[in-house]
Target: Threonine synthase
Amino acid sequence: MSNYLGLIRRYWDFIPIEDENSICTLLEGNTPLISSTYLGPWLGLRLYLKYEGLNPTGSFKDRGMTVAVSKAIEEGARAIMCASTGNTSASAAAYAAKGGLNCYILVPEGKIARGKLAQAMVHGAKVVAIKGNFDDALRIVREITTKFSIKLVNSLNPFRLEGQKTASFEICDQLGRAPEYLCIPVGNAGNITAYWMGFSEYHERHKIDSRPRLLGIQAEGAAPIVRGEIVENPETIATAIRIGNPARWKEALKAVEESEGHMEMVSDKEIIQAYQLLAQKEGLFVEPASAASVAGLIKMVRTGWVEKGALVVCVLTGHGLKDPDVALDLSGLITECGPTVEQVIEKLGL
Ligand code: F0G
Model:
């Protein structure tokens, strides 16, 4: 029997859930912090990779969702709703199924990785694809959830952040201290905001002597915070962070400033390079948005922003299986072969 209890029970004192009976959990969290054996030495860093793709639905979203859905249940809600580039919808659909709630999801048509869409559908959510982008979807969800008795579970919901902040606690527990830098992809900017809350709370309570500098990474075609202006038509291969007007923009900027960190952007080409390095040299299959954090770190080491020898954690936000099309498009063709030993030996060039 697993003695892992899920985030809410594990960090009970830090999370505002009052009624234990309302807890809706899939035993999220407790993800590995993997020591990098290739990128770290290559970049001259003490580098660790927080593999959030190993949460129950394959992304970090489960941390926030367990708290948001438990709170919704505590408050007597019957339905939840979100806009999503994919992962939030997969997580919302799974937790709604577990908690017996109806789930309504708005996604931008044609811009959702197939694994994520499959998750939302299989868990029985009502999925609507709108002819617009994530920012349009979120605007509509905000309006509908004020008109109907449906809980919004995007990261505008403060309970999402209360759950997501636990990733910082885990990192401090796993390292025995806070890292010097935390590198993280930024889309709607909820996660970076939550990490800062987490490091700050742990710093206060456990007298950890430092907090990391936050390095927030956006994709070049969807980099409103780096550019300092809304991006009307965001575009990037990293569909999870294809967002032009992040809801937590101000909070993210404040977190980066307070931590004396930095916001950077990377090209799709850089994202793909990092994606392939992670897969081929670290054995870690992540989705493109997650590789953005590593691409950003490589850039910031090259520009001298991060010094050699630094203790760095990169957050790998989602599993690579979420987006099989990108993986297959980037790989070579499969070799076809007849069914004999000789033919296989010949094809393999042995
Ligand atoms: N990485 C992945 C894999 C994501 O799915 C997201 C966001 C982010 C990074 C960025 O996190 O939005 O808190 O800054 N995905 C949201 C969604 C927008 O709808 O699934 P953020």
Observations:
- The mean pLDDT is 96.
- Residues 215 and 262 are 5 Å apart (CA to CA).
- Residues 190-206 form the longest helix (17 residues).
